[in-house]
Every structure is written in C-alpha cells, then in structure tokens.
Amino acid sequence: MFLLLTTALTGLAGRLAWLQLVDGNRLLARARSIQTQSIDPIGERRTVVDRMGRLVAIDEERFTLWAHPRYFNVPGDPPQLVRNPADVAQRLAVVLAKPSGALLELMGSRSTGVKLATNLDPETAAQVLKLGISGIDLEAYPQRVYPQAGLFANVVGFLNLERKPQAGLELSRDSDLQRQETRFSLRRGADGTPLPDGLSAGSLYGDDLRLQLTLDARLQQVAQQALARQVKQWGAKRGAALVMDASNGELLALASTPTYDPNAYWTFDPGLFREWSVQDLYEPGSTFKPINLALALQEKAIDPNGSVYDGGQLTIGGWPIFNADHSGHGQIDFPTVLQVSSNVGMVQAMAQLNRKRYWEWLHRLGIDVVPDTDLPGAVAGQLKSRADFIGGAIEPATAAFGQGFSLTPLKLIQLHGMLANGGRLVSPHITRGLRSGDALASHGTPTGVQLLDPKVTRTVINWMETVVQKGSGKGLQIPGYRIGGKTGTAQKAHNGVYIPGARICSFVAVLPVENPRYVVLVVVDEPQGGNAYGSTVAVPVARQIVEALLVLEQIAPSAPVAAMAKPAPAR
Q: Which residues carry out catalysis?
C-alpha cells in the first residue's frame, strides 16, 4: 500500500510539474481565450440636432436575426433534443409577423448561419429573446435614421447601406460625426460575471457629443413648404430659400425643392443629392443693384442725394441696353432707381466709378473666390478677368445691373448680410459645433471683416425700404414692420449663352430696417409664364418666411400697429 500510494503521489507530482512548467503557457492562453471576450466598435455616429435640439440625424440600434437549426431547442426541452425547424418557424412567425412557410423556406436544409430577418427594431428583438430559443442569434448594428425626412436632406446628406457617407455634412464632417470607440477585452468569470481586472481605465467611456446646427426646423419647414407650392404653381425647375443672421453668418434656414428622403435615398434621382444654392452659379440680376450702389457710395463716385437720367435705353460699345419694361423714367434719384429697377439708371450711376476700382471691389468682395463656409461643396463665382473688365465698356455696364458675372445664392445672401450688419463680410455657416449631452450652444458673437462704411450701408438699406413701400416689393408690406428688399428677374445663361425665355426670379429682404439683422433670399429657377417676375414668383415665398421669422425670433414691431376701429354701438 505504501509503495502504491508513493507511486500515485509521484505520478501526481510529475503531472502537476508538467502542467505548470511545460504545458502551463498553452493552458493559460486557452483559459484566457475562453474567459475573455473581445468587443469591437460597431461604428456608431454622433447625433445631429438643429439649433433648438430637435433630432436631425441619429443612430438607432437595429438587429439581424440568424438561425442555426442544428442547435434548435426551446425552454423545457431536454438538452440533447434538437427541435424541428417547423416548430421554431411557427414560434418566430408570430413575433416577426411573417408566414412560417417563408421562414422555413429560408432555412431550407442548411444547418447553421441562416439570415432570417434584418432591420429588426429593439422591441421586436426583445420579443425574440423572450422566446428563449437556442440556436437563434441577434446581431446588433447601428442604422442611421433621419427623423425629419427630406427637410434637411439637402444639407445633412445620408449614409449608404455600407454606412459610407455620400453627401452633405455626413460626408464633409465625417471625422467629426464618428464617435470615439475603442476595441476592448472584457474578462468574465465561470458564470459570465464581468471581472474588474479585465477592463482598463476609460474602456467604457461613453461619447455623448452631438453636432448642433444653426438651422431651425420650424423655419426650415415653412420655407420648404412655401417654396414647393410656388415652384409647382409656376411650373419652375427648382427653388431655394435662405435665411441668415447677418450679425454672425448663422443660417436659420436653407431649403430647396425638389428634395429627397435620405431614409430611402435609393428611390430618388442622384441629381437631388447636391445643394444647388451652394454649388450652382447664376447671374443675380437686379438683386445685385444694392451691392453696386454701396460700392459707388463707398468710393464717393455718386452723391447720396444725387440723381441720374433714365431715357429707357442707351448704347454701350455698340450694344443696346434697355430697361425690362422698355420705358424711361426721366431724371430719378437712387431710391427710385431701385424701386423701378432701372437698368439704364444703374449703368449711368456705375459709369461714375472707375472701372479698375470697380473690378477690384468685386474681387475684394470675393465674387471669384470660394466662400468661407462649412457648407459642403461651396464653389467660387465667375468674374471677368481684370483686363477684359477694364478694357471694354460693356463689361462694367452689364455688371451694373447684375449680369455678365455669376455667383451662388449663398454668396449673394452673404453680400446682402454685409449691407445689413454695417459693412462686415461674415462667413455663412450651418453648424455651431459639437456639444455634450443635452447642452446647446448659444447665439454666436458678431464676426466678420469690415469692408464698407456703416453710413454707406445704412443709406442703401433705407433705399431698399422704399422698394417695399413703393416699388416691386410691395407684396412684403407687413403692418408695423420696416422691411427692405429688392426683386430680381434675370436672364439665364448656359455656357455663356442666354437661353431664350429662361429666367431666374429672386427676391432679397432685410429686416428690421431700424436695426437690420436678418436677410431672406428666395430664388426660383425657370418659372413658366409671361407674368413670371421676382415680384410675382419670389416675393410671396419671402412673405411667408418673414411672417414665420417674426414670430419665431420674437421680433418686435418697428412701430405700434394702429388698432382696428371699434364698431359703433348699436342703437
């Protein structure tokens, strides 16, 4: 017995020595592989909200349902029993709202790795788990959802099915929208309990940053609906509406139509995935006249109290120039030039400005430079070369009434913002930056480079007010409020050639005149009909936007509104 016990103990000691000294590392690695679970990041993206915190883009958890028929077992079954796929299909059919026959057809004769469903919401996934069926796996993944549908599609963009950004801020701010995620290993005990020594400091850090926009979903909706109705009514090709806070360049609305639903982008024309008001050029026409008059005043080429003669038409370098209505207005002052939108009067006024200085100002304003903006895809405008502009009289003449050069609607609202804020050229933008949790950024501080004398811009804004009071902008008169504006109806050019009958109708508004802060721009491309002008096509859209803006921003009336007369008492 002694020898037998000694032999057994010696064998055990040898085996222990073998396991610890020779085979120890292999067994330790095997144990670690069983005890440790590696968790890979799933590529979640940060939430996007509007200026008031309303959801614009968010990652929601979705699930893919996998079946492994060779492991089918339901609660109460013996561990060795493998259930018939038909039994499992009947149980799943109730939760998934699918015919059991369709589920059986998917399984076929395969024993594992069968995808039964995808894009399951968390509630449905929870019901599947509640069934407790062995051999059923749920694979979680994030799905980008756009709660506002097409309302912000033109600026936010979308992700494709592989979660690759394809347009808008999703593409241009891709790195900012990716959450900080790290791959970490979690060690568990024999019963699956997480062990604290398996986690390093910061492993479970939660990234709750959100990208906040300057856009207001309420104003955006008003702008888009008003724009869509007018585009449909006039049979126009497309339209855009922008609202900017001139003090700091924040865009409160940037709507365009037609638009698309980023939740189902594959059903729409890819041509809709770009924001044309930021990426397409057009000749601004008469909406640029206030900018030109400001340049002439800045250079003291014209007297604020001066006047010009409008004979209805004139010839410059052999080219005829005439007013849109082909009529003359005689000797008129500069407010009247804007009211009647006199092309001849503008040519006479800008002829007083040295051509060289005129071109230098247009270049200084950044007509031919990409705007400083966070909007994706922004492009530079087109301006004739310095030599061509100075060398021929026709170039500065056509530029006087907003033709012969091109820019984007975004650039035009930036320039009118310069008039509104006292001569500062601000950077138009739609983001306020990343914020933590539910915190929201406040109104940005005034910014911009001072280019024009505030007295000059004040004079031009007052002139623009007369357009709403007496001229083509009468449709924007709102009792109690002082509003400036300018209509525009420009010929549309393609590859340097004007398209017969094609117009771009626009209107720009500045308010309130006594303390200008907001700029509204509406541009409608190729409206149909002989009566399609800025006053008939663009002004009605601008009015609806301005009325909403007055309420949302709580803008007080410029003057007390006269109370309605009370009816005389009955006798």
A: 286
